[in-house]
Design a protein that fits this description.
631 residues; alpha/beta; Aminopeptidase; 9-stranded mixed sheet; 3-stranded antiparallel sheet; elongated; transmembrane
Length: 631
């Protein structure tokens, strides 16, 4: 072996030794920095003040003309809608359609029905179009109001009454450059989905809906009104999360907030957290932390926080304005609601194209402060990099032990010599890395996850079988999914143990291959890091929650000579599995399954397939790892 080759091998061995020494410390440092970084997010110094990027919006710069005459109209609508609580859907729809026609709008209705999650959802959507007097109707804005509030029980009386009075008021003015569509939806989010699918002639779900006989242009933005009951309100809640964690353009939220603060001095609240903000009020660390947790929870679940959340699928920015009854300061009523909506629509009316100049990826610790994607993404990436370093560390342990190199002072022959020195290291590994079995285990676990997904997806069909035996539906599904998980893990553990015995007998007095569990854990860690990295771009909140849950167990857990340690690790893995998390959080499992299945079938929420097909299988792989033979 030549001197050059020996020097190169020495440098490589030195680098490998240094990496083996520092990688464990570095990955723990990355984990600590990544988690600690997340707790800096609520700090006022970390976020920035929001600003309007689209200069054409000019929020709060117009004189509003919504007056007490319109308030009297809204009050009359409210009294009439409240008195119709016991009437049929058809009678309610006829009243809404009649009032829209009186206001001079073109009107139409849409019937829809769907069977999802063992429940029949049906209703009638009512909508009208106020044609723009200044353009050819190629663009439109939507003002929507559902019959039921976000709790699904309380009637959205004030929201519908305000929408009717506002659109009647809009008819009196000629400055509109976009059509105004008023949409009164039935059946919750299913009604909005049915209308959007028919409007864009793009059927994506199993909803059976009648075709729309009335259309307008491309929808630029939408405002959804949710003002339940008939009382006054103390604060305005903003709901902006959409399906699968999508968010509207930040300019839309900023416009509403500027209008509320500048024109009407109404306290703003993110969601219904109970933390109220006035103009340029950033709040304290605790309130910002709570706002972030609430918003990240909605995004992680992929659950739209209102009817607005379904517009994002069609590249339509939307937001829900929610009336909060409790709060500080003076109350507000129809006058302030009408002024806010008018001023917001006047700003949106100025747009020459879709909102695009501001952020689509952000976090809001308070209404007037934001964290951009460049500031919130690094923690998730650090956690993923820590897992990759751990995977590389394990992969390095499967190589040969260091071989002492010959000294440069020894009699060194050229590489072309026939007889090379006996102490020279080999250029390849003598210990084989057999990855077929670990890769097969990973594939089988994910195949089991796919089966679990189809079982959960058909939960309500299986419930009909469980009812015959008098067993609760969710328990029956839990038993089936647990059995699938057990069969997959026990089968793989047995295969690993049999393979270990066979290898020991076949490689007697030879260098044994690398332990299967080390290779399996290395591959699984790298795969988990890849999932977290990719997911952080699509749904940062879900990526962060998954990272926090799995980082410590996945880093520490491995086979042990003590059975009690193995079973303690198994208990932790069961607790962080999907059934374990549902039980610990005291979630109503039946209702949770209902809405996850419904949102997957109707809206395309990917939370259920992600958990069943990616997260759950990785937990199964780790069960196999901790019960694998050590050598």
């Amino acid at each position: 072996m030549s001197l050059t080759a020996i020097a190169r091998l020495k440098k490589r061995r030195l680098l490998v030794r240094s990496l083996k020494k520092w990688i464990p410390k570095l990955r723990y440092l990355l984990f600590l920095v990544g988690v600690g970084w997340l707790f800096i997010f609520p700090s006022e110094k970390y976020s920035k003040y929001t600003y309007i990027s689209e200069n054409a919006l000019l929020p709060g710069q117009v004189n509003t003309y919504y007056s007490w005459s319109q308030v009297f109209d809204a009050t009359a609508y409210r009294d009439r809608i409240e008195s119709m609580s016991n009437l049929s859907n058809i009678e309610k729809v006829n009243y809404i359609e009649g009032e829209l026609r009186k206001a001079g709008l073109k009107t139409a209705t849409q019937n829809f029905s769907v069977i999802s999650s063992g429940k029949v959802i049906s209703g009638i959507n009512t909508f009208g179009v106020l044609n723009s007097p200044r353009t050819d109707g190629t663009e439109a804005l939507v003002l929507s109001a559902p019959w039921k509030s976000k709790d699904g029980v309380t009637t959205n009386v004030n929201g519908i009454a305000a929408a009717l009075s506002i659109v009647k008021f809009f008819k009196n003015y000629t400055y509109w450059s976009k059509d105004i569509i008023i949409l009164i939806t039935d059946g919750g989010e299913a009604g909005v989905q049915a209308w959007l699918e028919s409007y864009h002639d793009h059927k994506q779900s199993g909803i059976e809906a009648s075709p729309l006989l009335l259309r307008s242009g491309a929808i630029q933005a939408a405002i959804n009104l949710d003002f339940p009951g008939t009382s006054s309100y103390k604060a305005l809640g903003l709901f902006f999360e959409g399906l699968n964690g999508q968010l509207p353009n930040l300019d839309l939220i900023n416009t509403v907030i500027r209008v509320c603060h500048v024109s009407n001095s109404i306290p703003i609240m993110l969601h219904d957290t109970g933390h109220y903000y006035t103009h340029y009020d950033s709040g304290d660390y605790r309130s910002s932390f709570y706002n972030l947790i609430k918003s990240m929870k909605y995004q992680a679940l992929g659950h739209p926080t209102g009817s607005h959340g379904l517009f994002f699928r069609y590249k339509i920015d939307a937001i829900t304005l929610y009336g909060q009854v409790d709060g500080p300061g003076n109350s507000y009523d129809f006058f302030e609601i009408g002024s806010i909506v008018e001023s917001t629509f006047r700003s949106l009316n100025n747009l020459l194209e879709h909102l695009h100049q501001s952020f689509f990826f952000y976090l809001l610790p308070s209404p007037e402060r934001y964290i951009s994607i460049g500031s919130y993404l690094p923690p998730a990436i650090l956690l993923a990099v820590g897992l990759i370093f751990h995977a590389l560390e394990l992969w390095g342990t499967t190589s040969d032990d260091a071989i002492e190199l010959i000294s440069s002072n020894d009699n060194v022959q050229s590489s072309s010599s026939v007889n090379a020195p006996a102490s020279a290291p080999l250029a390849y590994l003598r210990r084989p890395r057999e990855i077929l079995m670990p890769v097969a285990a990973l594939v089988i676990s994910h195949f089991a996850g796919i089966i679990i997904f189809f079982v959960v997806k058909n939960h309500f069909e299986l419930s009909q079988i469980s009812n015959i035996f008098g067993i609760a539906g969710y328990l029956f599904t839990l038993v089936i999914t647990t059995n699938i998980s057990t069969i997959a893990t026990v089968g793989l553990i047995s295969a690993f143990q049999n393979r270990s015995h066979k290898i020991k007998s076949d490689h007697h007095n030879q260098l044994l291959p690398s332990p299967d569990w080390i290779i399996l854990k290395s591959i699984t860690l790298a795969f988990t890091a890849m999932i977290i990295s990719c997911l952080s771009l699509l749904n940062f909140s879900l990526a962060v929650f998954i990272s926090i849950i799995v980082v410590i167990p996945f880093s520490l857990f491995q086979p042990s000579v003590h059975q009690i340690i193995r079973y303690l690790e198994l208990i932790v893995l069961v607790l962080i599995s999907p059934p374990g998390i549902l039980i610990i959080s005291k979630t109503n499992i039946e209702e949770f399954l209902r809405w996850t299945i419904m949102e997957y079938e109707l809206f395309g929420n990917y939370f259920l397939p992600f958990i069943c097909c990616l997260y759950w299988p990785i937990i199964l792989v780790y069960v196999v790892i901790i019960f694998s033979p050590i050598k």
